[in-house]
Amino acid sequence: MTVVIFWVFPATDMENRMMVRTLLIRGMLVGFLAGILVFSFAKVFGEPQVDHAIAFESAMDEAKAKADLERGIHDVEEPELVSRKLQASYGLLTGVMVYSTAFGGLFALVFSYANGRMRSTDPRVVSVLLAITGIIAVYVVPSIKYPANPPSVGNPDTIGMRTELYFIMMLVSLLGMIVATMLQGRLRQQYNTWTATYLAGACYILIVFTTGELLPAVNEVPSNFPADLLWNFRIDSLGMQIIMWATLGLGFGAFTEYANRNRFGYRSGAKAQLHVH
Amino acid sequence: MSDTAIGSHAIPSPAPIPVREIAPWLIFGLLMLLALYFVGAEEGATSIIPGMYVHEWVHDSRHLLGFPCH
Question: What is the ipTM of this complex?
Answer without folding.
Answer: 0.87
